[in-house]
């Protein structure tokens, strides 16, 4: 009994690994060889088995596919709709849903489909396809299809397995084939995603199939008050897009009057902006606050052989191109063998009839002697044949009817033999230069189908939308000195309480009377203390003018500094901490003045003088500053420019002399 827990653990571990392996390889992750998941491969193989040139009811197709796919009809139907809507391999008839609006397809009994000409040309060749038994042993299914296109990158794929996921971006048909040519010619190439929804894509963070990209809707300004969305980002629908716009409008991030979705075969979403708001500003807000711009993190995970691996676009293209070259070589070799066998049979037939070898068997009495007679008669002609004559060859000759011999056309036979020899020669030439033959095959596909698949997504580098600059100032932050609370849900109770109009993305700059300062995010309610001196939005460039009392010395100092650097919610100090230290006056910008009252002195002519802040250098926030006066400052008030220049000059001269003596 002591070993039971260990055995049970091993049982669970084994079963879980089996399940994990099955989900990864047989359901969620596509193969690098043909770019298909098992359910997609089984759907296409079933369509090929049912192919008669006509459309098939999807319900019938789903039922036939279940003979190969050991899962429910719902998974087959959803995979079929997804595959058909990619627009490459399956022709549709009926309502297969809408990739723009997100509408679902009709019931499978109402819609029909069949293989596209492209699929029939590039997907199937039983001569080079490896087949295995289906799950019940009644049928066979392909391990992979001999695809002549890099379908993995053409269609893209998404899937979630156990412990891993894949998110492969779709790419452009023509660009993929041009990249394959570049691989064969040993040239450089670069590939970027191309989405069926169109839109714009910023690939500056795209790392060859991985990394990060940003997708945007294509938005145009119809007039100052009307915006039209013509194309949507990949992974969105018009429904999800309008929902995100309505949500942003309710949150006060954008101001619109109405939004109408007129999408049918093409995307058309109309937005009317509110009074006092202009379309060009709203477009920036749409990119910042709605799904008009979405980030996507591609993850190129695939099955290579029997193992999952993370790859790159370049590796996939190189692998598919070499596989294409190998498959085309196999096809040529198979065709060559067939043509040589056909030529061998025609030459044997020609020799047998033209040389009248059939007359030698008239006197033979047994089948064995007839066979030996024909075989002996063919010995002088062995050099004209591709291989030795076999028993099957002789049997085939003896099965020729007298009627066919009597109507044998020598000229026609010679013509057919010359045609076969010509085909054999062409194949041998192609086999000597498979690079040129592969490129010619790619060019043929480009010429035949390329114009059907133009690039839909524009590659463009986006300028970063600074949310704080375009956000609407829809919040009013209040401060109650009595309670010490601050936030956009706080209302000031006294006339001297502060209030700031801002957006939720702004940062609040708090300066306290004792010289402390910090920066906090906008919040609904937070305790800030009862001794705030200043509250405002953090300015990018602002000059602060301050007169403060140093509690240690009991002298007043004046200092100027620009908006300081900060870490959010970290507390800093403008001057040394002391219980008597205090800000006496604070102002902002240039051409600011203060009137200073000092303690009376019998030797002084006046106890009041003006301070012009522009006379002082702008330094760092931690600088001590210059002493205002050698006397104790009683009070500092905001003042305008001095009205008596001479007195001010004398005062400033006196102050300068005092400072010189101190220095």
Automatic annotation (TrEMBL):
<feature type="active site" description="O-(5'-phospho-DNA)-tyrosine intermediate">
    <location>
        <position position="110"/>
    </location>
</feature>
<dbReference type="GO" id="GO:0009330">
    <property type="term" value="C:DNA topoisomerase type II (double strand cut, ATP-hydrolyzing) complex"/>
</dbReference>
<keyword id="KW-0799">Topoisomerase</keyword>
<feature type="domain" description="Topo IIA-type catalytic">
    <location>
        <begin position="29"/>
        <end position="475"/>
    </location>
</feature>
<comment type="similarity">
    <text>Belongs to the type II topoisomerase GyrA/ParC subunit family.</text>
</comment>
<feature type="region of interest" description="Disordered">
    <location>
        <begin position="639"/>
        <end position="663"/>
    </location>
</feature>
<dbReference type="Pfam" id="PF00521">
    <property type="entry name" value="DNA_topoisoIV"/>
</dbReference>
<keyword id="KW-0413">Isomerase</keyword>
<protein>
    <submittedName>
        <fullName>Probable topoisomerase IV, subunit A</fullName>
    </submittedName>
</protein>
<keyword id="KW-0238">DNA-binding</keyword>
<keyword id="KW-0175">Coiled coil</keyword>
<dbReference type="GO" id="GO:0003918">
    <property type="term" value="F:DNA topoisomerase type II (double strand cut, ATP-hydrolyzing) activity"/>
</dbReference>
<dbReference type="GO" id="GO:0006265">
    <property type="term" value="P:DNA topological change"/>
</dbReference>
<dbReference type="GO" id="GO:0003677">
    <property type="term" value="F:DNA binding"/>
</dbReference>
<dbReference type="InterPro" id="IPR002205">
    <property type="entry name" value="Topo_IIA_dom_A"/>
</dbReference>
<dbReference type="GO" id="GO:0005737">
    <property type="term" value="C:cytoplasm"/>
</dbReference>
<dbReference type="InterPro" id="IPR013760">
    <property type="entry name" value="Topo_IIA-like_dom_sf"/>
</dbReference>
<feature type="coiled-coil region">
    <location>
        <begin position="322"/>
        <end position="349"/>
    </location>
</feature>
<dbReference type="InterPro" id="IPR013758">
    <property type="entry name" value="Topo_IIA_A/C_ab"/>
</dbReference>
<dbReference type="InterPro" id="IPR013757">
    <property type="entry name" value="Topo_IIA_A_a_sf"/>
</dbReference>
<dbReference type="GO" id="GO:0005524">
    <property type="term" value="F:ATP binding"/>
</dbReference>
<dbReference type="InterPro" id="IPR050220">
    <property type="entry name" value="Type_II_DNA_Topoisomerases"/>
</dbReference>
